[in-house]
Amino acid sequence: MARKTGSHSEITGPKVRDAALRLFARHGYAAVSMRQIAREVGVQAGALYLYTKDKQSLLFDLMRTHMDELLAAWAATPKGSTPLAQLEDFSRFHIHFHLDRPDAVFIAYMELRNLSDANFATLEALRREYERELERILEAGHAAGMINVPDTRLATMAVIAMLTGVNTWYREGGRLSQDAVADIYWDMVRGAVGA
Amino acid sequence: MARKTGSHSEITGPKVRDAALRLFARHGYAAVSMRQIAREVGVQAGALYLYTKDKQSLLFDLMRTHMDELLAAWAATPKGSTPLAQLEDFSRFHIHFHLDRPDAVFIAYMELRNLSDANFATLEALRREYERELERILEAGHAAGMINVPDTRLATMAVIAMLTGVNTWYREGGRLSQDAVADIYWDMVRGAVGA
């Protein structure tokens, strides 16, 4: 797949990001060198630095892009008018979005400790922003008497953990389609929050 | 904390395991050398090999010990007579056991990809054994009409993901005690499985 050499113009962001994503997911950030990433893209190691400052910048770029895309995709998702309908929208959205990006999700959880402090803080703020989207739905549902949880913050964390957990076992082409999984999980989410 | 040197008799299993656990959790398996572990224990690097064959053996030992302890502790946990009571026992047990061992849990999830194929297979079998404990409870609850889930396997994965998720946000000394968290999560687990 990798070509032996490439002109600088071929080192486009997406190609470098794809290669880094694959390699980080397979071997872990700490075990992957810029040289390996360059080889995967098909360019000389030195040429990689025309695109990215260093490996840390590359990791941060991957993780921030993932969170930016997550927030943008959720913002663009059509939503129901009641908190309960929005909770269903969120549950289905979360499962599909994450199942469609297994490597990015894997890295988002596995490589947090390898971020610099400043980069970690930025990522945490974006993650918190996403969590707040769900938390607001649960608060509105609670206020409307549509759901029943003693602690909306804990319910937020519980629902997100439950939904993200699908990525650890789901295999495309297995016995259940993404939609079938989303149906079953929506049922469990609704039950968990007493709706 | 670390001493400069130590006699061989001081290189006890627990000391080496504790040091490896701390370092793997903080920096990741790939980034930690046997030399660093030896320094943390307070012995020469060569002396470490009297206790363990290599870094892979050390990682596997940590992860297998964690799973062995998990299975043994659950087996020793007093259990209620109904599937619903057992589900509550399982939920509370899981939360307490995992919150008491943050580093071991972190490593159990983060370092799976760094295991050799044979070691990975052994670990997966132990993990599957633990999941089966919960799955059997859900099956019994379903058969007794006490719970209502369309798919006991998916409910098993959902409940375990939800419960293990507590480790990602819980801080000892925070606004909620372990018991308060377990109360709230038991409520959500019960709801998720329609009990």
From TrEMBL, chains A, B:
Record-linked InterPro entries: Homeodomain-like_sf, HTH-type_TetR-like_transc_reg, HTH_TetR, KstR2_TetR_C, Tet_transcr_reg_TetR-rel_C_sf
Ranges for domain HTH tetR-type: 10-70
SUPFAM superfamilies: Homeodomain-like (SSF46689), Tetracyclin repressor-like, C-terminal domain (SSF48498)
Coiled-coil zones: none
Keywords associated with the record: DNA-binding
Keyword DNA-binding: yes
Start-end of DNA-binding region: 33-52
Protein origin, superkingdom: Bacteria
PANTHER family documented for this protein: HTH-TYPE TRANSCRIPTIONAL REGULATOR RUTR (PTHR30055), TRANSCRIPTIONAL REPRESSOR MCE3R (PTHR30055:SF237)
Record-given protein name: TetR/AcrR family transcriptional regulator
Protein source organism: Aliiroseovarius salicola
